[in-house]
Amino acid sequence: MLGPMPSDNEVGLGSLGRDYGEVLWQPGPDEVERARITGYRRWLASDRGVDLAGDTGAGAYRALHAWSVAEPSAFWGSLWDYFGVLGERGEGPVLTGGPMPDVSWFPGTTLNYAQNALRVAATDPARIAVIARDEAGNQSALTYGELAAEVSRVRAALCALGVTRGDRVAAYLPNIPAAIIGLLATASLGAIWSSCSPDFGPASVIDRFAQITPKVLFTVDRYRYGGREFDRRQAVTDVTGALPGLAAVIVVGGRGEDIGPAPRTLAFESLPGAAPAELEFEAVSFGHPLWVLYSSGTTGLPKAIVHSHGGIVLEHLKALCLHQDLGAGDVFFWYTTTGWMMWNFLAGGLLAGVSVVAYDGSATYPRTGALWQMAGETGVTYFGTGAPYLLVCAKADLVPVRAGVIAASCLGAKVEAYGPDGAPVTGRVGELVLTAPMPSMPVGFWNDPTGERYRASYFTPWPGVWRHGDWITMLPDGGCVIFGRSDATLNRGGVRMGTSEFYRVVEQLPEVADSLVVDTGQLGAHGRLILYLVLTEGETLDDDLTGRIKTALRTALSPRHVPDEIYQVPGIPRTLSGKKLEVPVRKILLGTPVADAADPDALANPEVLAWFSK
Fold it and tell me: Which pTM was predicted?
């Protein structure tokens, strides 16, 4: 359901606070000349006759973006040819149907994600594909040739277990090479992959995997995090007991023990089946399911979101090669677990021919700078992580954190801000929408044959328009600022803003480790603005800190955004993927029982939620 729309007040960079929009870096002529997106633009001119205005710089990008959203068939079709996607393109059109979501991409085309991810194995088998690193500093590597051999071995085992096109294969694994191998082996068969991190509790895993009824489960029997070992044998037993269709459980790095009631327990290191001399790939349609990702599931069963082989191949090639400028010789890292969609993006680095770093463990063990040390020792050229780690590093004086403006929309993404009347607005806060289709959009939800749930989640209240559920301001120069969830907006005296701005101010204070802000106001009724704080070790909420917080918010935002109440709490409730639970906490404050406000099995720390009912 839509929250209240923001006011029509103009939003300029000056109103967003100090440092917003500050240029941190911009490429010089040499970087622009070498950039892969520059090569693509020249190829468009020479091979497609698409001669766009502007030579280099921001103007050139704006022209390219405008063309990519105005001519989606030409743009997405050109990516297939430019990157030489392996598959059978066929003679059909690129895009048919409409409006969204009733569109079809590349009808008649066949390909396989795994074949494209492993293409370097045929041309440069000695190139490093995966660098495995754990928090203790242990490190190993697989070349593309070795990775392809491992995929072939695991693929043969899956075949021996009866896995075929359309079957589901699930994984309860850390971010280790076996997860990437399992994904590629599954995809090579046309089967469908889905993964959860082993820190997920069994109920959360069952909520996800029971929907897709996997035939095989990859798992570990224990994992390490923050210097401690966590035994997962009972959790695996609980999960497998709720998945009656399992043919086998494959244990990675196990100790030879049977786990759970599945018919067979197999060791990953000694699987059955004879691998063929040459790795084979099942050709599937462009829209054939590749993997299933999940929503957070805080207030109901997680949505099982299905993505396609073709859509992911093109989107990841575009994003990694043209936007992130990755290619041969790069070492690509993103701090993630297998339960977050960024793990899938990390694995996609193989499409670009890079070396991906699979890091298993805590970002801050044995010290805050652990990831930076790892990056230096592995030669990382592209470092990706979430905002919480950067905030911790900033407080430890390891990295600067400033600015806050996204430079531009991605190619092929027709991003707009919609006002309350469903018309695009610039320089004002609006609903983040996509007004044109992209092939990487989900093909639907699992067990949603009519598409009713999918439409209700993303295509209301404006039919044919994807509503993402965030506030955004599109700036006149094409940049944008995202303010957070549109169902968790702060509304003070008619001034509305997303919670992310609030956190940006509060969490800059060295005493603040984490925070949550909730506005209890309802339609037509003023409410309380309540700030909850987790403080760094040894700190307490006293009058001095309270005063400095209020002063910082008054100065950076407005007097209306000074909290009515501030509390120190033992923890901020978060989903398993790390999102703050603003809406469920608001529901609790308005009288909803804790048990009805959020599913505890979908939370990383459910024990803290009860505190907010006091």
Answer: 0.86
